Amino acid sequence: MSQQTQGMFRPALIGGAVAGLLTALPFLSCFCCLWIIGGAMLAAHLLARRSAVSLTPGDGAIVGIFAGIVAALVEAFVSLPFDALNREFVQKFMDQFSQFFEELPEGWESWIDRAGAGTSLALFMLGLLISAVVFAAFGALGGVIGASLFGRKTPGSPPGVGIATPQNPGYRQP
Questions:
Q1: pLDDT tens digits for 91-107?
Q2: CB neighbours of 120 closer than 8 A, spacing ≥ 6?
Q3: Following DSSP, what letter does each residue of the chain receive, concatenated?
Q4: Are 153 and 52 a contacting pair, CB within 8 Å?
Q5: Residue 76 CA: distances (Å) to CA of 2, 7, 72, 81
Q6: Contact assessment for residue 7 and residue 47, using Cβ atoms and an 8 Å cutoff
Q7: Cβ contacts of residue 35 below 8 Å, gap of 6+?
Q8: Are 69 and 132 in contact (CB under 8 A)?
Q9: φ and ψ at residue 120, rounded to 5 degrees
C-alpha cells in the first residue's frame, strides 16, 4: 500500500455513489455488477488524476473496495422507495409464469406478500452486509482494472497528466 490512501476517500465516495445510485434504480439494477465495477474504475480514475505517482494494483483494489462499500450503502437506502414497485413486478412475472406451469404448490401467490410484510431491521442489515461484501469484491476487481488503465504515470509527470502520448514531450517508444 502506498501513500495514495490519504486521498482515496473522495474518489471512493463519488464512484460508490454513482454505482449505488445506478444499482438501486429499477430496470437498471439488472446490470448491478457492471455498475459496481464501473464505479470502482471511476474511483481509480479520479484517484489517478489527483496523484503524482503511478497507482499500484493494490491502490486500485483498496479504492475499489471502499467504492463498493459506499455503493452498498447508497443502494440500500435509495432502493427502499422502489421496494413496492419491485414487488409488483415480481408478482406480475409470477402470474405470467403460472400460466405455463400447473404444478405449482397451493398458495404460491401469497409468498410475495408474506415476504414483504416480514421485512425487519435485522433482515435489512443482513442484506446490507451481504451486499457490502459482494460489492466490495466487485469493487476490488474494478479498482484493479481502473488502476491498470488509468494509473500509469511517466516519471516526473505532474498530477493530472496521464500516460505519455506521441504529442507529449515525455513520450517514449515501448
A1: 777 777 666 666 666 66
A2: none
A3: --GGGGG-HHHHHHHHHHHHHHHHSTTTGGGHHHHHHHHHHHHHHHHHHH-SSPPPHHHHHHHHHHHHHHHHHHHHHHSGGGHHHHHHHHHHHHHHHHTT-S-PPTTGGGHHHHHHHT--HHHHHHHHHHHHHHHHHHHHHHHHHHHHHH----TTPPTT--S--TTSTT----
A4: yes
A5: 31, 25, 6, 10
A6: yes
A7: 18, 19, 22, 23, 28, 71
A8: yes
A9: -130, 175
pTM for this entry: 0.73
Gap between the Cα atoms of 122 and 106, Å rounded: 29
Domains of the chain, residue spans: 3-84+132-150
pLDDT digits (tens, 9 = 90+) for 50-97: 888 888 999 999 999 999 999 999 999 998 887 777 777 777 777 776
Q: Could you tell me the three cell numbers for 153?
A: 504515470
